[in-house]
Design goal:
Layout lengths: L11 H7 L12 H4 L2 H14 L3 E3 L41 E6 L3 H11 L4 E5 L3 E2 L2 E2 L2 E5 L10 E6 L2 E3 L5 H16 L8
Parallel strand pairs: 3-7
Antiparallel strand pairs: 1-2, 2-6, 3-6, 4-5, 7-8
The structure holds zinc ion.
Length: 192
């Protein structure tokens, strides 16, 4: 099998051959045009191993963003300098290496499984998101080059604030508090 290189775009034939649990039309932007193939392959591997349904977020920018910060793993552009909007050359541009998804089942169990699989170097859990007007934690998954130490960079979003528990003590404490209070209050954010 030919090695798949970073930043490679996906043909429909490759999609049909390697990606069995997702269809391109499920994503907010066309992954055949804008996704890094390895990222979608890792999502497919993750989906196969977790054996739970995964729903790509329908929100605009959940796969590819054209005018966001160039540091975003969702960013797509034909160069990393100019401000790109709209049309991009799909053969030469930087592809999105991230996707935002909803995973069936208990979010804390899903989160630990995401981390255990080591398929993603950036993993965010969003505890303040909705899917079709119902609260449901969302996951950001990306295949950035470098995560945190030898694993993934992790963050938690809660009430629109971002917390990076690996990076400082106050965020670590905050995340512990968030998880404890959500569990104690039986806030229904971990279940779907
Ligand atoms: Zn994201």
């Amino acid at each position: 099998m030919k090695e798949i290189s970073k930043g490679q775009w996906i043909s429909q034939d490759q999609w049909d051959k390697y990606i069995h649990h997702f269809s391109p039309i499920e994503f907010s932007e066309d992954p055949l045009k804008y996704s890094d193939f390895q990222t979608i392959k890792n999502l497919e591997s993750f989906r196969s191993s977790i054996s739970r349904r995964i729903f790509p977020s329908p929100a605009s920018g959940a796969l590819a963003r054209f005018s966001s910060s160039k540091r975003s793993q969702h960013y797509v552009g034909s160069d990393m300098g100019g401000d790109i909007r709209g049309e991009v050359d799909t053969n030469t541009s930087k592809k999105s290496q991230a996707v935002d998804v909803f995973i069936e089942g208990n979010a804390l169990i899903n989160w630990s499984f995401v981390l255990a699989c080591q398929l993603f170097k950036g993993v965010g859990i969003y505890l303040d998101t909705e899917y079709h007007y119902r609260p449901w934690p969302m996951f950001h998954l990306d295949t950035r080059e470098k995560g945190y130490m030898s694993g993934a960079l992790i963050w938690v979003r809660y009430r629109e604030e971002y917390y990076y528990p690996q990076l400082n003590d106050s965020d670590r404490l905050a995340v512990r508090g968030i998880f404890r209070s959500c569990i104690l209050l039986k806030e229904n954010i971990f279940k779907r």
